[in-house]
Design a protein that fits this description.
It is a single chain. The chain has a six-stranded mixed beta sheet, with helices on both faces. A two-stranded parallel ribbon has the order 5-6. The protein is globular, with a radius of gyration of 16 Å. It is α/β, with parallel strands linked by helices. The chain contains six helices and eight strands; from the N terminus they run αβαβαβαββαβαββ.
Length: 211
């Protein structure tokens, strides 16, 4: 895989260690981790090295992103880092295309750079896939009721909406309500650098609704 296909996101080197610190608390040590919208693949390579007994399955609907994921995987040469999959959270029943059931799901910087339909698809699919007690971990900027949004996040939200009106920072309570309706319980909200959050849900019950 050529080096030209290995893309780089500068934020990755800044946020990977804070994210890893949370993942060490919530992820299983072994099994299968499904990373949604893995982007450049830099997180996947870094985290797979930190969890050598956990199979790391990255995915992304963008073919350029999948090429970059594969390039970083080739460079890392880790036996637990699997070839990337083409998964799109906006596609109905995306989870039914998987050949293995994940023991955990991770999505970094997805919810605000995609339509709300992608959030719905992610939460519904996670609820169908995850075993009881298994974590769904989300990282990124959020709005929260009763909490002032940082000026930098307000500016970021405006820039996202200028690119696509369907994008923008999600209200954490809206995400949590939808998750709960699918049988996912909010486990923890961790404050992260640069006004981001890591939000962890766990599969806890049968969903209230499949709608």
């Amino acid at each position: 895989m050529s080096e030209e296909k290995a893309l780089h996101a500068p934020a990755t080197t800044r946020n990977r260690d804070p994210i890893l610190a949370v993942l060490r608390q919530v992820l299983p040590q072994e099994g299968l981790l499904l990373e949604i919208a893995a982007g450049t693949g830099e997180h996947a390579a870094y985290f797979a090295a930190a969890f050598p007994d956990l199979l790391w399955q990255a995915s992304d609907p963008d073919p350029d992103a999948r090429s970059s994921i594969a390039a970083h995987a080739a460079r890392a040469a880790l036996p637990n880092l699997l070839p990337p999959l083409d998964l799109d959270m906006e596609q109905a029943d995306w989870d039914k295309t998987l050949k293995a059931i994940p023991d955990a799901i991770l999505a970094i910087n997805l919810l605000h750079i995609s339509p709300w339909r992608a959030t719905e698809g992610l939460l519904k699919g996670a609820a169908r896939l995850l075993p009881f007690g298994a974590p769904l971990s989300l990282y990124g900027p959020f709005r929260r009721k009763g909490v002032a949004t940082a000026p930098s996040n307000e500016a970021f939200d405006a820039s996202l909406k200028a690119r696509d009106l369907r994008w923008g920072l999600r209200l954490l309570e809206d995400v949590a309500d939808l998750a709960e309706a699918q049988g996912l319980t909010l486990d923890r909200v961790v404050e992260m650098p640069a006004n981001n959050l890591t939000v962890v849900f766990r599969r806890a019950s049968e969903p209230q609704s499949r709608a």
